[in-house]
Design goal:
heterotrimer, A alpha/beta (329), B mainly alpha (505), C mainly alpha (162), A: 329 residues, alpha/beta, D-Maltodextrin-Binding Protein, domain 2, 2 domains, 5-stranded mixed β-sheet, 11 strands, disordered N terminus, B: 505 residues, mainly alpha, two-stranded antiparallel ribbon, 2 strands, disordered C terminus, DUF1468 domain-containing protein (chain C), transmembrane helix (chain C), DUF1468 (chain C), transmembrane (chain C), membrane (chain C)
Chain lengths: 329, 505, 162
């Protein structure tokens, strides 16, 4: 499910959520500005995809002068983002903290009881949706999804699928694949997407589900081959790679890249940050980046974003329940 | 030689007056950042990265390289002067650097570190220039099994047979390994050993926290008790005579240093390993091949030179997988990688073909930065040595404040500061009871690498333990590890076994 | 010395047991399904080794004579304890009153009261340290230190330097 929003609608969404939050008090104060540096909490450790993206945002904000105070990235990646979520929960009402999220925003509170309800947080803006592609080593004979399924079946459960950890996005896609095709793979977790891609090229694992940005360098060097994309439409960078949907298998999965704020952030601050990210999403740097890295720039704010989060949380709850039902963790 | 022409072009840019200014500025800033316990090249690079949008890209790379190298040199300064490793790569430097400082030879140790770093940096840049592209394939051949074997080898070169109390050494290794498992279990994705569900433990216990605790706070408490009011170190002076004596001493160490450089470069090149195991292995090998291993850990200049060449060579080596494969080997190279993406470059196998100007510009900047770093470092040694001459109570107060702030800075959590205080008191008591602290710290650094790669291999090989021996590369490393383990044992038995050959604290 | 050795050995044994108990939350055996040991295996078995080694140290100490030397130097122990207390008090104060109150207070205590240095030196250090910390960490490195209730006082400084 994708939301296409016009800019006006987005702003209206912001305004409405701001009004609700502000209650009967002052109208949108145009003049609110951060009084101290803004802390950008990152739900992942240094060097990962999420971290790199957050730092890209920081650089663009600084370069284009989108905020009056510096934005300072702080990594709190512990426990698949549990640390960051707890930190945000403890910062109720803080107007100088925002958090860059990924899908562990839903999965972490679902998998471990950390006393965080994401419904309480204030949604700011969704910047993009990242895509997933199934990859094999370019030396293998596998060309199509059918070849792939046949190869996995022939291996008798010894097919090595690399990923970034049980409960992470790619492991969910792997679980969906296993369910859809009635296959069984050995899931080998690695420290990050780059490490996964390297091990595929080095022949230590047989296939991966990577973000395009993580495997693109190897793809251009002709070392890895995309088999199928888990998007509704073909990805521009890989025009010859079919989507799962087009082959008759309903597997679509996104990684969202959004920003949220603590519970009860003042409405004026919410409006300020929303506008900042709105401007950011229109910069040329961001537009080029999304195109190059096969990201779907899909800007969304306010109530719609919150509704999106909650819907995604339900979807993930179902996927996780499925995975645990299989006993394959 | 195409490469040489490209490199010459690179030098032409990096030697322009503006860029030279940038190098000097960057190196000096890097030195001070690296010398601060808790801060390292990551912090320096993170600050500068957003600025690189504003200055021209060629200058931006030079600035980044200068900060990177400056911080690598700086790490040794806090290891030697304060005994607190500023980064995990500088742990091995404390083993002999600290005793040297206590004997009043801080200046000599600092010179040794600077010269060794320079040689390590130089040799590794040469290796990089000649073999960067073919070596990328070697990095690819490294899977989890090879990683495990390599870390095991690093462990055994170092631990060998402890001359310290064997039982106490075992306790400390186990404690370090257990502490390293705190946090999230990568394989199952479940949290473990998060005592009382404290969110601070979710991210595990970082090396810096333990090192600042036991080496910083613990050391101060220990000296406070044992030294009464006397200063902890013999006042150090630095003269030209000492300088030339230092240079002569370094001259004899060329074998250790070239070995350290090669080792550092190759180990640093492997994405999972990096500079820390490289430095430890260089130290371990220097000790076990030395004619007088018992002088190690008591202020042997070779024990400073070996790890310092290796860790600087490794910092060049770690750029290799980042540039050729797009895989960062350390948080710092991860940030550099991010920077490259922002400049619109695509790190990976095509970079050397499509962006040669960038690659060789970076290499030549590294070389210029290396040169500037050694010069500035040596020029500043009198200043650093002077700092040691402060009254003990003043120095202590400053070091404690630096420990608090330096412990807070990387993670920005008070939780870590509390841990530092706790580890400080525990480290003080353990040290008094003759428990060796080095194995504890090393185990914490190497533990996560070891467990992760061990379990990854077994999962991928369906639980087949023989996989470690069957694969040629990992089999070789395992054999070497066994050799390193047995070698000191043989020596020990032959000598009648009274002498300590483990690093003394 | 011997008593302290035993007490530390027992403390380590207790700690190991506690770790082992914690580690059992995850599978500690050889996990046949995924191949290789489970998530709790490393901490559990290593803690067991630690427990046994510490036990060995304890048993060994029983066979030793009482060496006359005591573990602590009585006179200096007092100063160690006072530094530890000052350290913990400073850390506890940081989240409440901020680093810029807690750290100068610590400096003042250490240099003036503990170290008995001159007022001039004390003043320089107690005032110089926060200024250095502010410019080095906050302005240059952009790492914000905790400010506690002193936060609003820094708003004008932020406006000036950022």
């Amino acid at each position: 499910m994708i939301y296409k929003m016009t800019r006006r609608a987005a702003l209206a969404g912001v305004a409405s959520v701001a009004m609700i939050a502000a209650g009967a008090t002052s109208a949108l104060a145009e003049g609110w500005k951060p009084q101290k540096p803004i802390e950008m909490v990152i739900m992942a450790g240094q060097g990962g995809g999420a971290d790199r993206l957050a730092r890209l945002f920081q650089s663009i904000i600084q370069k284009e002068n989108l905020a009056s105070m510096p934005v300072l990235p702080v990594n709190k990646g512990g426990g698949s983002g549990a640390e960051a979520l707890r930190y945000l929960k403890d910062s109720e009402g803080d107007a100088h903290k925002i958090m860059a999220t990924l899908n562990s925003y839903y999965t972490t509170p679902l998998r471990t009881d950390i006393g965080v309800d994401i419904e309480e947080f204030t949604p700011i803006a969704r910047m993009a949706l990242d895509t997933f592609v199934l990859w094999v080593n370019a030396d293998s004979d596998i060309q199509t999804l059918d070849d792939y399924v046949a190869a996995v079946k022939a291996s008798g459960g010894e097919w090595k699928m690399g990923g970034t950890g049980t409960g992470q996005e790619d492991s969910l896609v792997t679980a969906m694949l296993e369910k859809e095709f009635d296959i069984k793979v050995t899931y080998v977790p690695f420290k990050g997407g780059g490490d996964v891609a390297k091990n595929l090229v080095g022949g230590h694992i047989d296939s991966t589900v990577n973000n395009p940005s993580e495997a693109l360098g190897f793809y251009q060097a002709g070392k890895v081959r995309p088999i199928v994309a888990f998007t509704p439409n073909r990805i521009d960078v890989f025009p010859d790679t079919p989507t799962a949907t087009e082959l008759g298998h309903d597997i679509v999965y996104w990684m969202q890249r959004s920003f949220v704020a603590p519970k009860d952030m003042p409405a004026e601050a919410v409006a300020y940050y929303t506008e900042m990210f709105q401007k950011l999403s229109e910069t040329e740097e961001w537009q080029t980046y999304t195109k190059d890295k096969a990201l779907m720039a899909d800007f969304l704010t306010g109530d719609e974003l919150q509704a999106y989060f909650l819907e995604e949380r339900n979807k993930h709850a179902a996927i996780l329940a499925d995975m645990e039902g299989d006993g394959s963790s | 030689m195409d490469t040489l022409a490209l490199l010459a072009d690179g030098f032409a840019t990096s030697l322009s007056p503006l860029n030279l200014m940038i190098v000097i500025l960057g190196v000096t800033a890097g030195l001070f950042i690296g010398a601060m316990p808790g801060l390292g090249s990551v912090n320096g690079v993170a600050i500068v990265l957003p600025l690189t949008f504003i200055v021209p890209p060629s200058s931006a790379i030079i600035l980044l390289a200068a900060i990177y190298y400056g911080a690598m040199y700086g790490g040794a300064i806090s290891s030697i002067l304060l005994g607190i490793p500023g980064a995990s790569t500088a742990v091995a430097t404390t083993f002999d650097g600290r005793p040297m400082a206590q004997q009043g030879k801080a200046g000599l140790a600092l010179i040794a570190a600077a010269v060794a770093s320079f040689i390590g940096g130089t040799l590794s840049v040469v290796l990089f220039t000649l073999f960067a592209v073919p070596l990328a394939d070697l990095a690819l051949a490294f899977g989890p099994a090879e990683e495990f074997a390599l870390v095991l080898m690093a462990f055994t070169t170092f631990v060998g047979l402890g001359g310290d109390d064997v039982l106490k050494t075992i306790v400390m290794i186990c404690l370090g390994l257990v502490l390293s498992t705190v946090g999230l279990d990568l394989i199952s994705g479940q949290p473990r050993l998060i005592f009382g569900d404290l969110p601070g433990f979710f991210s595990g216990i970082s090396f810096l926290v333990l090192a600042i605790g036991v080496y910083g706070i613990g050391e101060i408490l220990y000296t406070l008790e044992t030294s009464r009011t006397a200063p902890q170190v013999t006042p150090a002076r630095i003269t030209l005579k000492e300088l030339s004596a230092g240079m002569r001493a370094m001259n004899r160490l060329w074998k250790t240093m070239s070995l350290g450089s090669f080792l550092g470069f190759f180990v640093g090149m492997l994405p999972a390993a990096g500079a820390t195991p490289a430095a430890l292995m260089a130290y371990g090998i220097a000790r076990s091949t030395s004619k007088e291993p018992h002088t190690f850990g008591k202020g042997n200049i070779e024990g400073v030179a070996a790890p310092e060449t290796a860790n600087n060579a490794a910092s060049t080596g770690s750029l290799l997988p980042m540039l050729t494969l797009g895989i960062p080997g350390s948080p710092t190279t991860a940030l550099l990688l991010g920077g490259m993406v922002m400049w619109g470059l695509m790190p990976g196998p095509m970079l050397f073909i499509e962006q040669p100007d960038f690659v060789w510009g970076l290499i030549s900047s590294l070389y210029t930065a290396n040169f500037a770093a050694v010069a500035i470092n040596i020029a500043l040694i009198p200043l650093f040595v002077w700092a040691l001459r402060m009254p003990f109570t003043v120095l202590c107060a400053i070091v404690i404040v630096l420990c608090i702030v330096g412990g807070f800075a990387p993670s920005q959590k008070m939780h870590d500061v509390w841990l530092i205080a706790g580890f400080g008191v525990a480290g003080y008591l353990l040290r008094k009871a003759d428990y060796p602290l080095a194995p504890l710290v090393l185990a914490l650094v190497l533990g996560p690498l070891m467990e992760k790669s061990f379990r990854q291999t077994l999962i991928a090989e369906q639980g087949n333990v023989l996989a470690f021996i069957e694969r040629p590369l990992s089999g070789t490393f395992i054999a070497l590890a066994a050799l390193f383990f047995v070698l000191p044992l043989v020596k020990y038995l032959r000598k009648g076994g009274s002498r300590s050959i483990a690093p003394a604290e | 010395m011997l008593v302290a050795d035993r007490v530390i050995a027992i403390a380590i044994m207790a700690l190991s047991a506690y770790f082992m108990w914690h580690a059992t939350e995850l599978p500690i055996g050889w996990n046949g399904m995924t191949g290789g040991p489970g998530g709790g295996a490393f901490p559990f078995w290593l803690s067991l080794v630690m427990l046994l080694a510490a036990g060995g140290i304890f048993v060994r100490s029983l066979g030793e004579d009482h060496g006359g030397q005591s573990f602590f130097d009585g006179v200096m122990l007092k100063s160690v304890i006072s530094v530890v207390i000052a350290l913990f008090a400073t850390i506890a104060l940081i989240p409440v009153a901020g680093a810029y109150i807690a750290i100068p207070l610590f400096m003042f205590w250490y240099v003036r009261i503990f170290g008995r240095h001159s007022w001039f030196l004390t003043g320089c250090l107690a005032l110089g340290t926060p200024v250095f910390l502010f410019f080095f960490f906050e302005v240059t490195l952009k790492i914000l230190l905790p400010k506690g209730f002193t936060e609003p006082l820094f708003f004008p400084l932020y406006a000036m330097f950022f």
